[in-house]
Each structure stands twice: as C-alpha cells, then as structure tokens.
Amino acid sequence: MGRLDRSAAVLALRDTKRLMYETLMKENRRLSVAEACGGDVEKEKFFRRSWCVMLAHVRTTHFPEADVRRIVGKNVRDLLGHCRDAGAFVSEAAQRILVNYGRGSLPFVQRLIAEDVPGLMEDLLSESTDSSDETFRRAVQCAVHLNGIVRSLDTLERKQWVSLLVRILHHRPNLTWQKGIIEKLKILWQVDADPWRTFAEAEEQLRDFKKTASLDVQQEIFDLLAIC
User: Fold this and answer.
1) Which residue in 104, 129, 131, 101 sits closest to 116, CA to CA?
2) Which of 37, 75, 107, 183 could form a disulfide with 44 if both were Cys (CB 3.0 to 4.6 A apart)?
C-alpha cells in the first residue's frame, strides 16, 4: 500500500512525480500514470498505491482512524529514516516527499515531523565541518519543513528551531541561504506571543551576527528584530 520502507521506492516515487510535474509545466498537459512510469508495471502499481499520502491531509475518510494513523505514521517514520540515509540522493528524495506529507496535514502527522526533524538538524550540524559540505546542505534543507509544522510547535520547540537556524547562520552559508533562514526565523517570530522574551538569547546572537553580515542581510535582520 504505497510502502516507503525501501530507498528504491522513495526514489521511484520522486522521479515519477517530477516527470509528471515537468511535463505539465513544459507541455501544459498532464501525463497519465502509465506514461509517467514508462510502461513499468511494477512502478505504476506502486505509484497508484501512493494515494495514501492523501490520508495525511483529509479530515474525513472511510478508513478507521486507527488505520489512518498506522498507514500514514509508518510512511512518515520511514521517510524520516530515509532523511538520515548516508546517500544524498535518497535523503533528498525523502525530504521532498516528506514536505508533501507535512503541508496542511493532520495534527498527528505534523507532530511526527516536528519531533524528529530538529534532532536530524542537530546531528547534521554536529557532523558538518564547513558551510560548503554536503552534510551542511542537508541541514539547511531540513528547514523547508518549518512552514508545514510551525503551528503545531510549542514554545520550547520554537526556541529549539530558532537556536538551530541561528547556528546555521553562524556557519556563514551563501547569501541566498542566509536570507532563506532569516525568512524562517521571521515565521517563528510572528507566531510567538512574546518573541522578545522567548527568543531573547537568539536576539543577542543575531545582533552580534548582524555586525559582520552583508548590507542585505543586515537589513533582513533589522526587519526580523522589528517584529513584535
């Protein structure tokens, strides 16, 4: 039923979805599943079963709630496991699919992602030695999940996310990444009832970082700290 425990299944699902999307964008037509799978019957069967990703989002279904939690929960946990895969292709594919699970999903799905991703980011940042290495890039990539789960975070979890994002900034990634990380920080600032109190330590770190940042990034940090 759309199982994602094997890395090959994750890569196959990513490739098929990408082909269907690219065809829609370039040729303004929708590929049939059969076309997208290139006549591969097993791949087509798997893709058709991947409808269970929809279970992560629908509020009503003919499935018992326990079955929904079992099916979706297993897939999400499998994807989270693949995100830790040593192979960049597998981990990136898992991240992309996991984003689809997280956005607008049921609360229990958001909680699964919210509870695991910060630990993954922590591990990757601890392993990274340079802002240009693959491990660091994967840590930055984890931030993409924030938009889908931010409303499910409690105060301590928001503080944890802010701490991790500020750590990423201190690695001095490229300008595009710096601006992207600051945008994530703005989201966390905006949803917190008292950001000045909640993120007081991070605020001091950001003010220090701002002193040596580029003019563009200085302005972004100024805008962030102006949120109240």
Assistant:
1) 101
2) 37
Q: Tell me how crowded residue 84 is: count the other CB atoms within 10 A of its CB.
A: 15
Q: The whole model's pTM is what?
A: 0.79
Q: In the numeric block, which tokens belong to residue 164?
A: 């991790």
Per residue in 71-92, pLDDT (tens digit) is: 888 989 999 999 988 778 888 8
Q: 155 to each of 6, 50, 173, 192, 198, how far by Cα in Å? A: 35, 34, 27, 7, 7
Residues near 14 by beta carbon (within 8 Å), at least 6 away in sequence: 93, 96, 97
| CA–CA dist 220, 214 (Å, integer) | 10
- Residues sharing a CB contact under 8 Å with residue 4, sequence separation 6 or more, in sequence order: 10, 13, 75, 78, 79, 82, 97
**What is the residue whose two structure tokens read 């000045």?**
196
- Terminal Cα distance for the chain, rounded: 47
CB 68 within 8 A of CB 1: no
- Return the ∠ at Cα 186 (arms to 183 and 188), rounded to 5°: 120
Rg over alpha carbons for the chain, rounded to the nearest Å, is 19
Cα dihedral 160/162/163/168 (nearest 10): 130
Reduce the DSSP state of residue 129 to 3 states and report it. coil
